[in-house]
Design a protein that fits this description.
Blueprint: H1 4-13, E1 20-24, E2 32-33, E3 37-38, E4 48-49, E5 53-56, E6 66-74, E7 88-92, E8 104-107, E9 111-113, E10 117-120, E11 130-131, E12 142-144, H2 152-160, E13 165-169, E14 173-179, E15 183-184, E16 195-196, H3 199-209, E17 213-220, H4 224-231, E18 239-243, H5 254-260, E19 263-267, E20 272-273, E21 279-283, E22 286-291, H6 295-313, E23 324-328, E24 339-350, E25 353-358, H7 367-372, E26 375-379, E27 391-396, H8 397-400
Parallel strand pairs: 6-7, 14-17, 14-18, 15-16, 18-22, 20-24, 23-25
Antiparallel strand pairs: 1-13, 2-13, 3-12, 4-11, 5-7, 5-8, 6-10, 9-10, 19-21, 21-22, 23-27, 24-25, 24-26, 26-27
Length: about 400
């Protein structure tokens, strides 16, 4: 068995980003930039007023009260075309450009207005309530860098920079192949010895939430011809993920069958709980991850290995969820040689840290505890027993993984 870190390193080092495409910014959210983006305009393009009031020369209002002649008006979308001289002012509204000659805004609350004049009752320093030209960004300035996963905020930034189209990495296509005679889809007739197939649905949801494209190839039966035929559907995908069939039993056929079709195995067992029978290899140029069949194992392995792999494929730095301290609400026994990811829930807070309670059963078939879990307690190999109140490292599920 190899360590979790070595397995992760082997997977990520073998991958490269998928090809790119150009899309309108309306379709860019969640995609990863394939090139730096430079602004096509200066924002704001001129000095603008940040408030409703009067545009004045600061030199004219050093002593107040003072009466200034109002010679015009400037509103957003229009401008005052003349020049403001000594003793003059222009009525101005939020977002309007400052008239030539002015450098300061006096808000209307600090004035007394008449038809053609305004009394300034409170002084203001030069530049007060002025949004200077280029205060946000300037034409030619790099606004967003290659490798950035675009957020809704970034879409607004792109629009402000006058960028209607962007070149991004296309959505990576991940083919999912479930295996096992015992599996049926939700809602289908179910035999006495069968169970509902859940793994592909869970992993597909994670892939889609992370910006990838999940391709469900279906459920292969436990025979060579079925597995070979259905795996051929991954030829156009960027990665094949098998779910089940990666262990050492007589009916776990993935390695033996696909090995005849060109599958080259890098590793197939790791020192991890849950998830020991994880497999990684290359099927005729297509990276392949073989997930364990137990649902908790496949989901946690997807957290640890598939999500950062998807990041690489989509042209961004691999994700690494933060491990934060928490306090145990009970004693915890020592760990063995495998790195452990234990389902837990946050039940309170103490000294500014979350208090966590592990589920009594960590069986890797229990989806109810996986659904109820709010975090994973990570334990290193051979970790010593801990008493109630000890500090452990946890990974927040909702904050660390897309859609979780």
């Amino acid at each position: 068995m190899i360590s979790v870190e070595e397995a992760k390193r082997n997977i990520l080092s073998s991958l490269k980003p998928v090809s790119t495409e150009t899309v309108p910014i309306t379709q860019a959210c969640g995609r990863t930039l394939a090139e730096d983006i430079s602004a096509r305009r200066t924002q704001p393009p001129a000095d603008l007023s940040a408030m409703d009031g009067y545009a004045v020369r600061a030199a004219d209002i050093s002593a107040v009260p003072v009466t200034l002649e109002v010679i015009g008006e400037s509103a957003a979308g229009s401008s005052f075309e003349g020049r403001v001289e000594k003793g003059q002012a222009v009525r101005i509204f939020t977002g309007a450009p400052l008239p030539a000659g002015t450098d300061t805004i006096v808000i209307q609350e600090n004035t007394e207005q008449s038809k053609s004049a305004v009394i300034i009752k409170q002084t203001a320093h030069k530049g007060t309530y002025v949004r200077g030209a280029g205060i946000d960004f300037n034409e030619g300035q790099t606004g967003l860098e290659r490798g950035k996963k675009l957020t809704p905020r970034d879409v607004g930034f792109l629009a402000a920079m006058n960028i209607p189209w962007v070149t991004v990495h296309r959505r990576a296509k991940i083919a999912l192949l479930s295996t096992g005679d015992e599996l049926v889809r939700p809602g289908e007739p179910i035999g006495a010895n069968q169970i509902i197939s859940t793994n592909s649905l869970v992993v597909a949801a994670m892939i889609e939430a992370a910006g990838g494209e999940a391709i469900d190839l279906g459920i292969a039966k436990d025979n060579e011809s079925s597995l070979r035929q259905m795996a051929s559907g991954a030829l156009s995908a960027d990665m094949l993920v098998t779910l089940g069939g990666a262990s050492v039993g007589d009916h776990d056929l993935v390695q033996s069958v696909l090995g005849k079709d060109g599958l080259e195995i890098d590793f197939w067992r790791i020192a991890m709980r849950p998830g020991k029978p994880l497999m990684f290899g290359d099927l005729n140029g297509t990276p392949m991850i073989g997930m364990p069949g137990n649902p908790v194992s496949s989901m946690i392995c997807s957290f640890i290995f598939l999500m950062p792999a998807l990041d690489i494929l989509m042209g961004r730095p691999p994700s690494s969820p933060p491990i934060v301290p928490a306090i145990l609400s009970h004693d915890l026994s020592e760990n063995d040689r495998r790195e452990d990811y234990m389902r837990a829930k946050i039940v309170g807070e103490k000294d500014g840290l979350p208090v966590v309670e592990l589920f009594s059963s960590q069986d890797s078939s229990l989806l109810s505890t996986l659904s109820a879990a709010t975090c994973l307690v990570k334990r290193e190999p051979f970790a010593k027993a801990l008493k109630k109140g000890s500090v452990v490292g946890i990974i927040h599920l909702q904050n660390s993984y897309p859609g979780c």
